[in-house]
Design a protein that fits this description.
By secondary structure, this protein is mainly alpha-helical. The protein has three domains: 125 residues, Helix Hairpins (Orthogonal Bundle); 68 residues, MazG-like (Helix Hairpins, Orthogonal Bundle); 44 residues. It is built from twelve helices and two strands. The protein has a two-stranded parallel ribbon with strand order 1-2. Helix 2 packs across helix 5, helix 9 runs antiparallel to helix 10 and helix 11 packs across helix 12. It is globular, with a radius of gyration of 27 Å.
Length: 321
Amino acid sequence: MTGTPAEVPVPRKVICIVGRGCPAGDLLAYATVSTIPPDDERDNELRAAADGFAHLVSLMRTLRSEEGCAWDREQTLESLRPYVIEETYEVVDAIDRGDPAALRDELGDFLLEAVFLAQVAHEQGDFHISDSLQAICDKLIRRHPHVFPPAADGTTAGHGGVAAGTPLTSDDVKRQWDAIKSEERAEAGEEPGLLGTVPESLPALLRAYRLGKRAASAGFDWPDPSGVEEKVIEELAELANARTQGSHAAIEEELGDMLFAIANLARHLGVDPETALRSANRKFTERFTQLEARFRDRGIELSDASLDEMEAEWRRIKTGL
């Protein structure tokens, strides 16, 4: 291809619906075209999704304008951070409760935060939401060479040299994804180390799980769950010793070590510690709510009941009585 950078289109993958039209021919000269059969329902869903997303972007642009909302205009990337975290957990909560209607609404709130952040970044001259969408689409294509065919310039859609249509197991796909990710970082000159890419902003229990998993990929790990169980017992003894010494700093340190060991025990047992703890929290909440209700039915406030009375009722609730 010849011409200035501004004149030469960047190779893209284009998906066309048969009978619905494709981009202009000059654009197709620089694109890999995949077609899907006409399907009115799927076609309408795609159009509705595109229209809905564009409407959300437009609404946010209006809200941030001088004619919009004072509160929305005042927000920054930093001020939006707690809302992003909150909406993420509300999505997870809707999933845990098996509530499709709540999930629908919470996903909308979650998308709002993404568009909000992108609008602020755009106003700062950083990037537009379309850049984020293009980036994730490009990444998905690069990291799924077994699905997407080579690009128009003859290069593979992703790294690894796996041809499109090659059947892979889930484990194969995961290994391929990690390998391509490592290649991309090497090409970008990034050498963060094995643990450098585990975000510090993750919930502490989840980060402990991820750190242990990443270290294990290099062979630094207990050989089996029994070794981790022994480590948990060891840390519990050290916590008890710290309590005897009466040092708050030592207690905090040993408690942290024990929680880290527990997160890695969960990993060895094939359990997501965040999911397990959320389930335990939910179970405790349900049982405690029942406890309150049972005493209230007797005309007794829970705070007026004795610990022995509460313990006895708690055992009955646990056994389903």
